[in-house]
Amino acid sequence: GAYVLQVKATDADDPTYGNSARVVYSILQGQPYFSIDPKTGVIRTALPNMDREVKEQYQVLIQAKDMGGQLGGLAGTTTVNITLTDVNDNPPRFPKSIFHLKVPETSHIGSAIGRIRAVDPDFGKNAEIEYNIVPGDGGNLFDITTDEYTQEGVIKLKKPLDFETKKAYTFKVEASNLHLDHRFHSVGPFKDTATVKINVLDMDEPPVFSKPLYTMEVYEDTPVGTIIGAVTAQDLDAGSSSVRYFIDWKNDVDSYFTIDATEGTIATNELLDRESTAQYNFSIIASKVSNPLLTSKVNVIINVLDVNEFPPEISVPYETSVCENAKPGQVIQTITAADKDLSPAGQRFSFKLSSEASNKPNFTVHDYRNNTAGIETRRNGYSRRQQELYFLPVVIEDSSYPVQSSTNTLTIRVCRCDSDGTIQSCNVEAIFLPVGLSTGALIAILLCIVILLVIVVLYVALRRQKKKDTLMTSKEDIRDNVIHYDDEGGGEEDTQAFDIGALRNPKVIEDNKIRRDIKPDTLRFPRHRPPVEDNTDIRDFINQRLQENDVDPSAPPYDSLATYAYEGNGSVAESLSSIDSLTTEADQDYDYLSDWGPRFKILADLFGEEESYNPDKVT
To answer: Domain span at residue 360?
Structure first.
């Protein structure tokens, strides 16, 4: 009786004329599944609980027939295709109540060990199934998921299986619809339950170590061959086999230890040094004697314990300095210590002066008892002139057993500081400078010394030049004679080597004298030179003397330079000397200055007629 749809037919006859236009509906094909109302054409389901899983589509043939007319009843037909829509009205069902699975004990965690399937006759999302393990025996070791393509339940392993521990597991799996239709809750629970039994298969397994990780300790410098620990592995299979041990050699570090192949004991193979390597990490492999291919591996960590064998030392090299104006009790350096040994918790370093330095009143060491110490001054001021460097021996001890100590020498340099304690200079050169002399002043002094040395060198070089200049001057005559000699002179006799009187006075009478500046081969009388006339030109006179000396083989190879400061005769400009000038300005005529143009007008006014000169008009 569920409504499906309504069909309607039309008749072209006149509805007012009899029953010709009255239509009656009937089903010719489609029974007993559907029925139709003859008057309204409403189609309804004829059977209850029609199942889509049985038949999905139906074809219904509908006839519409009128009720009268001369031609009798006329009819028309149409076909209606009806498709059933699926609803989630069927629960999933397991085809069997018990599923048996066999799983090897060597199965890996997370691997799929079996599949089960529940059947749901619905379609699409109405057929999606969700699987769950009922809490109980297998909830901790197994898990189940749904394959979205096949809607199968995939059982996976959560923990490893061990045949020797447990050989079988039983648990229940529930399958339910993922999408429920609330209209069909009254039909019943939409889920089903099945039992899964898993049998663990015994497999030949590798040995199993008693621990997942072994940690051991050994003191450094332990004698070679000392046993420091052991590892243990067992074959848990039914037919137990013996186990052999060996180190997994990967690098040279593994050679520091050996292992007994049968007992699994680990011993030292070399002397260990914690300062070189504080920890060793290597692997040990165990294999079955019956099947050497079956092996297992475990990591071993060996920590090397420290033995107090190194004394503490100053952690870093310090550059310590003290001011010359330092006061007693002033801390000039804070020092720390370091120990190559592994210092245990609470270890302390102590600082003190050595016995030979304790009696010297220069510096002291103040131990702060927190592994640091301060170097303090004990004097009121220090002098670089007296001592530039001080060497302070400091003894440092540790608190381990046995106690180790060392003496460390600090070098303290005396420096010049200002009043605030800021270091200005620690150089050795600065010790010998007077107080207050700056670097700039020192550079100026050195520069002056260099300049003086250069002047001295130049002076000596000029003194070494072999030059000799002779300059003869006369107050009566302004003529000069310069004579240059290239060899060493002979004293006063050289004054007679050249008679300069002839140049000074052309009318001089030459005396017949023998030259004494050279050694004549034979005694010769001087040549007779004609007297010079009074009106002889000085140029002709000089040329005459030049020719005579050029042809005279007895003349010395010397040069003479004569300067004549008097005027010759016949100059067009006449004499410009003030010697021949007029004695009075009245005798001079300056009227020609007026003819020289405007530039010489002022000179013409100054040196013109006296009556025409007016000083007030001169600007």
So the answer is: 313-424
Question: How many CA atoms lie less than 13 Å away from 132 in the CB half-sphere?
Answer: 9
Residue 327 in any domain: the answer is: yes
Domain boundary among 19, 54, 83: 83
Does 358 fall in a domain?
yes
Strand order in the sheet with 34-36: 3-6, 42-45, 34-36
CATH number (domain holding residue 333): 2.60.40.60
Beta-carbon contacts of residue 470 (< 8 Å; ≥ 6 apart): 482, 483, 484, 485
Beta strands in 553-606 (DSSP E): 559-563
Residue 365's identity, in one-letter code, is V
C-alpha 556: how far from its chain's center? 89
Tens-place pLDDT, residues 156-188: 998 888 887 888 989 999 988 887 776 666 666
User: Is residue 570 assigned to a domain?
Assistant: no
Q: Give the integer Cα–Cα distance in Å for 172 and 131.
A: 10
pTM over cut 0.70: no
**Model confidence pLDDT, tens digit, residues 450-483:** 999 999 999 888 887 655 444 444 444 444 556 6
Total number of domains in the chain = 4
176 φ/ψ angles, rounded to the nearest 5 degrees? -140, 155
DSSP codes of every residue in 196-248? EEEEEEP-----EES-SEEEEEEETTPPTT-EEEE--EE--SSS---EEEEE-
> Residue 432 has what DSSP assignment?
G
